[in-house]
TrEMBL record, chain B:
Residues 287-406 form the Moybdenum cofactor oxidoreductase dimerisation domain. Its EC number is 1.8.2.1. It is an enzyme of class 1 (oxidoreductase). This is Sulfite dehydrogenase. One of its GO terms (biological process) is sulfur compound metabolic process. SUPFAM superfamilies: E set domains, Oxidoreductase molybdopterin-binding domain. It holds the Pfam family Mo-co_dimer. GO terms for molecular function: heme binding; molybdenum ion binding; molybdopterin cofactor binding; sulfite dehydrogenase activity; sulfite oxidase activity. PANTHER family: SULFITE OXIDASE, MITOCHONDRIAL (PTHR19372:SF7), SULFITE REDUCTASE (PTHR19372). Its cofactor is Mo-molybdopterin. The lineage of its organism: Bacteria, Pseudomonadati, Pseudomonadota, Alphaproteobacteria, Rhodobacterales. InterPro entries: Ig_E-set (IPR014756), MoCF_OxRdtse_dimer (IPR005066), Mopterin_OxRdtase_euk (IPR008335), OxRdtase_Mopterin-bd_dom (IPR000572), OxRdtase_Mopterin-bd_sf (IPR036374), Sulfite_DH_SoxC (IPR030835), TAT_signal (IPR006311). Coiled coil: none annotated. It comes from Palleronia caenipelagi. Residues 109-269 form the Oxidoreductase molybdopterin-binding domain.
Length: 208, 421
């Protein structure tokens, strides 16, 4: 670590009120949570008011908007469905992100109790809590997230760099001459210069 | 004097004979009226110097623009567009067509409304105005910013037909800014204790916040708090007035409209480092904290949006190479889908963690080509094939696709995005 330079004396002290206004992140262990609570049924109502128009009445997602529930057991399948229940490792992230950045287009206006309630409802929609569950700093660690152990720290150094840092082949590098097996023109999803759209794979996926 | 072939005069005579032969091979032409007739622009005046206090490209370059792919995202406010890399040269990306990626739109934040807070495990939490930031010692560096999802649509196959779409979540600028370590030292890191296990959490002023956790070692190394790019203020859509520059690391961490830096004793595990920017492997587990962008390259011309239109003979194959691990040391080009390779010319060294331009000056006579480029960086890492990547990761990683790209060149000079077997 580099030597510490002398401060220049620029800037001013941040006030506690300023820090409280901007530092709202919540850590995985719940550090940073404000007082408050919210139950599943209140969450159902708040979700219907602020969230369901994009995320669906049951957090299942509408059109191409994100699915917040479901997708269990899909992570090792083609096109995994990565939701709060199937994929997210921590409840803290749900609380933090909803509180800070949702609803889309009107972020930052939910009360702590509303955020607790919405979070409780999303957990309920994923069958992670019962319908009488009340989420608060006190009940925080009762929730078990299914995929909490589903993440590994970047292991490219061992899994890839160790193998791919080698002098590459320059001649006779393939067993047989290359042949084309996939063409972008067969997929036909590149926008034309006049702005017209060709077939959308997203629509095809949604139709399933 | 020895015999004529080895004298200076003999060499000269030989060279002249060669060019005479070449001249004889060129078709005779009718006189060109663009030369023989007086043209308007040679006769009349052009625009006055008062016409454009801040100019845009000439109208003939109207196709050198950002493009988007509507089906990629649910809403254009949380979406991506693409740099027209197929049409650019050199390494510096013009800001006006450099790609954008927002999670809640490009916000308008005036310098006088700008505040930067440093808090958490620091001796003195601080608030800076924009004017404060301009009084710190500053540095200039050129770095690439590549979205973690660049080439992500290509994991499952050849999908989008053009280097702009397959590789254009990328720009390269000269940044002016303050080292993050300078700002952290201004707040004082004594309160943080042992820095080895400390992190910073950075977030933007926009509704999405885009909060990300960065280990202290990187923060004190080369992270910049930047307020100029390519000589001028950041563009609104690139974080005006202040953004983070995180050399070599995935573009998501280059937090725009930077408003807060918190020193923490652990990662926040925010949405952008759990739900997003984690890479699902074939067995369903996911890598997290895949920060570095590995060595990568792409041939920008010829390419699907940049076909060969000049017929047979000399052709310039050119492209870009870059690595988050340091300098590009070599780029090889194959015309036969990877059976044989020739080493291209790196135009002028490579800055670490910045775009490098390569050329292969060669000849094409209508034969089908399966064009590929393969970058190597100063750690000895060689850009892998897509098959090699899939073997380790499967097809659901979404992010960090640095595979070798293939363009199929047809007899008519057209180019297509293809995959090989």
């Amino acid at each position: 670590l580099p030597a510490v330079a002398e401060p220049l004396g620029l800037g001013r002290a941040a006030t506690p009120e300023e820090i409280a206004a901007w530092d709202v992140n919540v850590m995985p262990d719940g550090t940073g949570l404000p007082p408050g609570e919210g139950d599943v049924w209140t969450g159902d109502e708040v979700f219907a008011e602020y969230c369901a128009s994009c995320h669906g009445d049951f957090a299942e997602g509408r059109d191409a908007w994100p699915k917040l529930a479901g997708g269990f057991g899909s992570l090792d399948k083609v096109d995994p469905v990565k939701t709060v229940g199937s994929f997210w490792p921590y409840v803290s992230t749900v609380w933090d992100y909803v509180n800070r950045s949702m609803p889309f287009g009107g972020a930052g206006n939910l009360t702590p109790d509303e955020v607790y309630a919405i979070t409780a409802y999303i957990l309920y929609s994923n069958d992670l809590v019962d319908e009488d569950f009340v989420l608060s700093p006190e009940t925080w660690d009762q929730v078990e997230m299914p995929n909490v152990d589903g993440f590994i720290i970047d292991d490219r150094a061992e899994a890839e760099y160790a193998v791919w840092r080698a002098e590459p082949c320059m001649t006779d590098c393939r067993d047989a001459p290359a042949t084309i097996n996939r063409r972008a023109s067969d997929v036909g999803v590149t926008p034309a210069d006049d702005g017209t759209m060709v077939e959308s794979p997203m629509e095809a996926l949604l139709a399933k | 004097m020895s015999d004529g072939n080895t004298t200076r005069r003999g060499v000269l005579r030989g060279a002249l004979a060669g060019s005479a032969a070449l001249a004889a091979g060129r078709a005779a032409a009718e006189s060109d009226p663009l030369i023989t007739e007086l043209q308007d622009w040679t006769s009349f005046g052009g625009d006055p110097i008062t016409a454009r206090p801040y100019g845009l490209p000439i109208r003939f370059e109207a196709d050198v623009i950002r493009r988007n792919v509507p089906w990629l995202t649910a809403d254009p406010v949380s979406s991506i567009n693409f740099t027209p890399i197929h049409a650019l040269e050199g390494t510096i990306t013009p800001q006006g067509c450099a790609f954008e990626r927002h999670h809640s739109g490009a916000i308008e934040l005036a310098k006088e409304n700008y505040r930067l807070m440093i808090n958490g495990l620091v001796d003195q939490p601080l608030v800076f105005s924009y004017a404060d930031l301009e009084r710190f010692p500053r540095e200039n560096h050129v770095y690439f910013c590549e979205c973690a999802a660049n080439t992500g649509m290509e994991w499952a196959g050849a999908q989008l037909n053009g280097a702009q779409f397959t590789h254009g979540m990328l720009h390269n600028m000269e940044y002016t800014g303050i080292p993050m370590r300078t700002l952290l030292q201004e707040a004082g890191l004594g309160a943080a204790g042992d820095l080895a296990d400390k992190w910073i959490y950075v977030e933007g002023a926009d509704a999405s916040s885009n909060g990300r956790s960065i280990p202290m070692e990187k923060a004190l190394d080369d992270v910049l708090v930047a307020f100029k790019a390519n000589g001028e203020a950041l563009r609104k859509e690139h974080g005006y007035p202040v953004r983070l520059v995180v050399p070599g690391w995935e573009g998501n961490m280059w937090v725009k409209w930077l408003r807060r830096i918190e020193v923490t004793d652990g990662p926040v595990e925010s949405r952008e480092e759990t739900s997003k920017y984690t890479d699902v492997l074939e067995d369903g587990t996911a890598r997290k904290w895949t920060w570095v962008m590995d060595a990568k390259s792409v041939i920008t011309s010829p390419s699907p949006q940049q076909p060969i239109t000049h017929g047979h003979g000399p052709v310039v194959i050119t492209g870009l190479a870059w690595s988050g691990h340091g300098k590009i040391t070599r780029v090889d080009v194959s015309k036969d889908g990877g059976m044989t390779w020739e080493t291209a010319r790196l135009d002028r060294g490579s800055d670490p963690k910045a775009l490098a331009r390569f050329y292969l000056d060669t000849e094409w006579n209508g034969e089908p080509w399966l064009l590929q480029s393969r970058a190597m960086d100063e750690t000895g890492y060689v850009q892998p094939t897509k098959a090699a990547l899939r073997e380790v990761r499967g097809e659901n990683s979404v992010y960090h696709n640095n595979c070798i790209q293939t363009w199929a060149i047809a007899a008519d000079g057209s180019a297509e995005n293809v995959e090989l077997s």
